[in-house]
Design a protein that fits this description.
Layout: E1 8-11, E2 17-19, H1 23-29, H2 31-41, E3 48-57, E4 65-71, H3 76-88, E5 95-99, E6 105-107, H4 113-116, E7 122-127, E8 133-145, E9 153-159, E10 176-178, H5 179-185, E11 189-191, H6 193-198, E12 208-209
Antiparallel strand pairs: 1-2, 1-9, 3-4, 3-8, 4-9, 5-6, 5-7, 7-8, 10-11, 10-12
The protein binds zinc ion (4 copies).
Length: 229
């Protein structure tokens, strides 16, 4: 995927739009998030350590990113399942977490996030050892309180779809991708709806809808890049 200027994204609490570099700071002071936390803290149950994680792609120029809040008791398997659902899954490939990248030490998926991701630590996540998609999971911060959802992880923010132009008309925003352009001509074949219908390549099937995922264009990935919860 070609690199584009820094992507913007949306805060899941206030729906505000912020640049990639400013989202962490925003989440720390978002009034709507504070309200959600206050409501959660007013419920029964014990406070626990919650981890603010930022996930950024390493293979698509860092245009794709997520801010997640994970329970310390959640496991790396929970995080792997979340990343597969929102971004990665095409045909059930192997994946792994490691410290120090490809050749680093593998961290077992049964480990708890509270034990392996203290603030400041980074883990590499690799999905598919053939056509791999690599992600960097960075632990930003922790807070002591009650989770705002019933799930092991909560989506706090994600990037908006990076805007791309159609390669045929250069004007209309692209909403489809031609896999044959990528595999046969090494061209990132983004197409508008009109040119997706008339594009000359048909040997690999119809162009696929663009999804908000760093796995777009790799293996058999076709989205939809929706969060599992
Ligand atoms: Zn906000
Ligand atoms: Zn695949
Ligand atoms: Zn077009
Ligand atoms: Zn094509």
């Amino acid at each position: 995927m070609p690199r584009s200027p820094q992507t913007k994204g949306r805060c899941a609490y206030c729906q505000g739009e912020f640049a990639k570099a400013g989202m962490g700071k925003h989440l720390a002071m978002c009034a709507a998030r504070r309200e959600a936390i206050a409501q959660a803290d007013a419920r029964r149950g014990a406070a626990q350590t919650l981890h603010h994680l930022r996930v950024v792609d390493l293979t698509a120029g860092g245009q794709f990113w997520l801010h997640l809040e994970a329970r310390g008791a959640a496991t790396l398997a929970d995080l792997d399942a979340y990343l597969r659902a929102i971004w990665l899954e095409c045909c059930g490939h192997m994946s792994q977490f490691s410290v120090g990248g490809w050749r680093g030490e593998e961290i077992d998926v049964t480990r708890r996030i509270g034990a392996v991701l203290p603030p400041g630590l980074e883990l590499t996540h690799i999905y598919d050892f053939g056509t791999s998609t690599e992600l960097l999971v960075k632990a930003i911060d922790t807070r002591l309180g009650k989770p705002t959802t019933a799930h092991p992880l909560a989506l706090m923010a994600r990037n908006a779809m990076p805007p791309t132009a159609c390669i045929e008309c250069q004007g209309e925003p692209a909403t489809f991708l031609c896999m044959e352009c990528i595999s046969e001509e090494q061209v990132w074949g983004t197409l508008c709806a009109k040119h997706a219908k008339t594009h000359r390549h048909r040997d690999h099937g119809d162009p696929v809808p663009l999804a908000n995922s760093p796995r777009m264009g790799q293996c058999g990935y076709e989205g939809p890049a929706d969060p599992p919860y």
